[in-house]
Amino acid sequence: MMREGGGRRHLLLVSLVLALALAIVPLPTALAPYRPAWVPLVLIFWALMAPERVGLLTAFAMGLALDTLSGALLGQHALAMVTVVYLSIRFHLLIRVFPVWQLSTIVFLLLAIYEFALFWIDGVVGRSVPIIERWAPVVSGALVWPLVLGYLASVRHDTQTRI
Amino acid sequence: MNAVGGIAGTLGRRRVPLGLRFLLISIVSASLMLLDHREEHLSRIRQAFSILVYPIQVAVDLPFTGLRWAARVLSDQTALLEENARLKSERLDVNVRLQRLEALGAENNRLRAMLDSSARVSDRVLVVEILAVDLAPYRQRFTINRGLNDDVYVGQALLDASGVVGQIAHVDLFTSEAVLISDPDHALPVAVNRNGLRTIVVGTGDSSRLRLPYLTNSADIEPGDLLVSSGLGGVFPSGYPVGRVLEVHRQPGQPFAQVIAEPAAQLDRDREVLLVWTAEDAADGYGSTNAVETP
After folding, report:
1. Of B158, B168, B134, whose CA–CA distance to B61 is shortest?
2. Average pLDDT, integer, range B281-286
């Protein structure tokens, strides 16, 4: 029992750190606007599959880390992240039984809310951002969601026997 | 590293209803943003966080540094010889120009002494490396590998071999964030090198274009004019090249001409940039010999 919990916690931390690293890995200039929002994707996965492990405080901490890494307003990504994770945890029983494509639609909506929160705060503060570069991550995020889901779920099955 | 999981484990239980916790954390985030927006209240907290995420930045940068190192080690001898020959001829060329420059500098100081204005003191520079770390793509910013430890300060100027690159926006302990002159939020006081006309260069968000929005239709500016920093903002040392004017559109009926310039520095290709510590004595601003008219 202890070992299972340890393995799961290990996987959780590794996936979160990996998501942060993926969020800042340099991409070719042409691809950079389409970088999926890895951190919310991974957090949504854990919030849906293991809401007792990933709470709002984890989301808050990850948001602050992303704020520091990207030089954004401190609390901007944190607020967006907490909102999305709150919705995921609140409705996880409802959402997680959906088939993959339906889940992708939900993730699309969640990412849209995430980006909208960022966009709205940018607007209040007075930073302008081109339209395509703001919304492209929502589409690319929903497209890579099945990969995130498949990969994390399969790794998770290796470390424990049941969902 | 277990801290995040630990916090989630202990505080994350359902003692407080989920909705209420969401509300509380949202209020904390919002007040953080409010404080951060009011400038510098949170620089200490930000620095603390930056130490926590520094390992991630280094880990992401590492493979790229490694690749460059490998490329250097594995480059063949003919390429090295070629490069060596090129560098030698370049050095000769630069040395010849430097001889003239030193004489001119001495003469300039003498003349300034006669005019009773303070002499120009040379600036201290340090070569810093840009971390291979992407920030938001639509913001013209990058991270460098020096911070508070090396006396970097907010507003400090960054140059490369061919011109002005940008300035420091945030300083953390080991890293700093810089804004490029092509950032839409960045403005830089310049002078036209040919006639000393002073104006302001604004970024466009495109690293190969700059805008000069505050020039009237009758302003004396032509494509090909060199723009140099005028030092009037007190941030950038004066006399460094900023860009070259590409296009001038004069529309009758519009109060201002549309002027587009191309940055002198290689904003999107640099790996190494120079941090400049401006000497305090040069603060009267008017530095270079013919960039601006002397007071």
Report:
1. B134
2. 40
**ipTM of this model?**
0.79
Q: Is residue B49 part of a domain?
A: yes
Helix/strand/coil percentages in chain A, nearest 5: 80, 0, 20
CA nearest A35 in B: which residue? B137
**Cβ-defined contact of B7 to A57 (cutoff 8 Å):** yes
**Predicted confidence (pLDDT) per residue in B135-155, tens digit:** 665 667 888 888 888 888 888
For residues B143 and B238, membership in a common domain is answered with yes
Taking an 8 Å cut-off on Cβ atoms, the answer to whether A9 and B2 are in contact is yes
Q: Which residues of A touch B28 (CB under 8 A)?
A: 60, 75
Class of A2-159 per CATH?
A: mainly alpha
Task: Give the confidence band of A113 by pLDDT, cuts at 50, 70, 90.
Answer: very high
B6 lies in a domain?
Answer: no
Provide the domain count of chain B.
2
Of all residues in chain B, the one with the smallest CA distance to A84 is B22
pLDDT of residue B69 exceeding 70: yes
pTM, entire model:
0.71
d(CA B161, CA B273): 8
**Among candidates B220, B221, B216, B203, which has minimal Cα distance to B166?**
B203
| Chain B interface disruption, residue of A14, A35, A57, most B CBs within 10 A | A57
Domain residues for the domain of B51 are 15-74
